[in-house]
Amino acid sequence: MSRLALPLAGIGLVLVLVGSVLSFEEQEPNLSFIMQRKLDHAHSLLEALITEDFETLEDSAGALRALSEEAGWFVLTTPEYTERSTSFRRAVAEIEQSAKEKNLDRAALGYVDMTLQCVRCHQFLRGTARAGLLSR
Fold first, then answer.
1. Which end of the chain has a smaller Cβ tally under 10 Å, C or N?
2. pLDDT of residue 130
């Protein structure tokens, strides 16, 4: 039995490594797709703000909120990343509520806040990746 243990352990390790590589390759396109959708919705928000289209403003904010709750959004499980995601959702909720109330100025401020949250989170993620703590 001990003669089989080492080869089986080696095969198991190879399978785990292959699975990790496949998981990475599957996650990266999904994350890229999610970030592209985020950019598309953010563009729709800006256009809706400029044209005072409250219906599109509310719809796009709702779509961004839903997107931020998808599993592919969660690239880290740290308290810092969770707080950044929560801050993003809070800003998006502000836009959504402002659109319902047809308050353009408040929606615009929510958009600025949302944009700042995006920039800060991406700075955080780049720093995390540089430190080798991001498993992407």
1. N
2. 76
Mean pLDDT of 21-29: 44
Say how far apart CA 68 and CA 121 lie, in whole Å.
Answer: 13
d(CA 132, CA 127): 9
Tell me the pLDDT tens digit for each residue of 66-99: 999 998 898 888 999 999 999 999 999 999 999 9
Set out the domains of the chain in order of their start, with CATH numbers.
27-130 (1.20.120.10)
- State how far Cα 94 lies from the chain centre: 18
Other beta carbons within 10 angstroms of residue 75's beta carbon come to 18
DSSP the chain: -HHHHHHHHHHHHHHHHHHHHHHHHHHHHHHHHHHHHHHHHHHHHHHHHHHT-HHHHHHHHHHHHHHTTSGGG----SHHHHHHHHHHHHHHHHHHHHHHTT-HHHHHHHHHHHHHHHHHHHHHHHHHHHTT----
